[in-house]
Amino acid sequence: MRALLQLSKRISRALVFSSSSYSSLTSSRTFATLSLFSPDCNGAAITTNGNVYARPWLAIQHRGVKVNAIHLRPGNVIEKSGRIFEVVDAEHKQRGRGGAILTLELRDVDSGNKQTLRFGAEEAVERVFVEERSFTCLYTEHESVYLIDLEKFEQLEVPLSLFGQAAAYLKEEMKVKMQFFDGRPLSGSIPKQVTCIIKETQDRAATPRYKKAVLDNGLIVQVPTYVEAGEEVVVNTEDGSFVTRANK
Question: Membrane spanning segments where (predicted)?
Answer without folding.
Answer: none
